[in-house]
Design a protein that fits this description.
By secondary structure, the protein is mainly α. The protein contains 17 helices and four strands.
């Protein structure tokens, strides 16, 4: 190859790209390295020959960068200037010689707290909020988040949606069974990457880490958010997990019921949760039936654990709840040494009982499994009302169950 003009940055970067390709670097890496070098050179306003070690050190000391961003630029500077010195002889010395190596740290194992995730979701704008949700709900890594596209959504099992995600240009994986609410949000984006940028059309993974770190109260990284849901399933009961994280109820939140060891083995619970994720928005009548069946299954599990199994007896939902109420000592004396507070609890419990009865009546009249499709039209608002009541009841019962267990 002919010698290139070291003052022609475009020509220098084009030759640098050829070198990286010959060394089997991915196009994403090539684009990122060239962009990093261009940013440095344009910011410095110097020729290649005049770049000194201190110029690079000052550049890398940007106080606004997180460690991953600084590390990415450090790697780009080292690769580029070593190539310019050793391969092309464009500069008399390598200004990165003696530059501190990028520290190798163990992968962060501590998950972000649920309260930290809630704060992040509340203060983030729509774009970063979506990034946090992709990390928390789907367990995506920063590079996978950066490359999400509506076109990568696929129909999976009947009534299910999958998402193909990519970490590199030649390595992909498939996430199965996405929540419908998240599917619709991704579909609402225009064609292309939902986080558009200069790195092959999308933003870079360090930038994802940086944006998320800005809104998280402790600067938590995406990896920590990815770990949070799994750890929550292992360490918390259902009600605590969804009440601390979700500002609103969604079918996915009820998945934490499976975290309760005494529930996780129930095929009935899993079946109703699977059905609810699909029916809540698309089949309101079926969702109402799912809510009723889920509460029945939960109540029967509680009663069996308390030594009062009902087996296959045909007991209606309100009657089942009364049995659970007795088994878990849910009564107006729940607030000790405070008659006034107990009176308030009595009113709340009366309302809760009414909610149970109402759920059963709505199901009997409108749900698909009682022939509701032949009667009144089932509107989504009725299904949402029933579902929200189900979340409230399930949360209260699981917490009362946990309280009895710890006594």
């Amino acid at each position: 190859m002919s010698r290139i003009d070291p003052t022609d940055l475009d020509a220098v970067l084009a030759r640098f790209a050829v070198y990286l390709r010959l060394n089997d670097r991915t196009e994403g890496t090539i684009t990122r390295r060239a962009a990093d070098v261009r940013r440095f050179m344009e910011q410095q306003g110097r020729t290649l020959e005049s770049v000194k070690p201190q110029h690079i050190r000052d550049f890398l000391a940007n106080p606004d960068w997180v460690a991953n961003t600084r590390g990415s630029f450090r790697d780009s500077m080292r690769v580029f200037f070593r190539w310019a010195f050793e391969e092309e002889h464009l500069i008399p010395t390598d200004p990165t010689d003696g530059l501190p190596s990028r520290p190798v740290t163990a992968s962060t194992s501590e998950p972000a707290s649920l309260s930290a995730i809630k704060i992040g979701l509340e203060v983030a704008d729509d774009r970063v909020r979506m990034m946090i949700r992709l990390a928390y709900v789907l367990g995506l890594k920063p590079m996978e988040i950066a490359q999400v596209r509506p076109a990568d959504l696929r129909r999976g099992a009947p009534g299910k949606w999958d998402l193909r995600v990519r970490a590199t240009s030649n390595r992909t994986r498939v996430i199965h069974g996405l929540p419908l609410s998240l599917v619709r949000e991704i579909q609402a984006y225009p064609a292309g990457f939902i986080f558009a940028g200069d790195s092959q059309g999308h933003i870079s993974s360090p930038y994802v880490t940086r944006l998320i770190g800005r809104v998280m109260p402790g600067g938590e990284k995406p990896e920590q958010i990815r770990l949070a849901y799994t750890r929550a399933l292992e360490e918390t009961v259902a009600a605590r997990a969804w009440s601390e994280v979700a500002p609103y109820h969604s079918a996915t939140n009820l998945r934490v019921l499976e975290a309760e060891p005494r529930i996780s083995g129930s095929a009935d619970i899993r079946a109703h949760l699977d059905s609810l994720e699909q029916s809540l928005d698309d089949a309101p009548g079926a969702a109402i039936g799912d809510c009723k069946h889920l509460l029945e299954s939960l109540f029967k599990i509680v009663l069996a654990e308390r030594g009062q199994p009902v087996g296959k007896k045909n007991i209606d939902l309100p009657a089942l709840y009364r049995l659970v109420e007795d088994a878990l000592s849910i009564d107006s004396k729940i607030v000790e040494d405070s008659p006034k507070a107990s009176g308030g609890v009595r009113k709340i419990l009366a309302t809760l009982t009414t909610t149970i009865f109402g759920t059963a009546e709505i199901r009997n009249e409108l749900s698909d499994d009682h022939g509701g499709h032949q009667g009144p039209t089932v509107e989504q608002r009725f299904a949402r009302l029933t579902f929200n009541a189900t979340v409230t009841v399930a949360e209260f019962v699981v917490q009362a169950w946990e309280r009895v267990k710890n006594q």
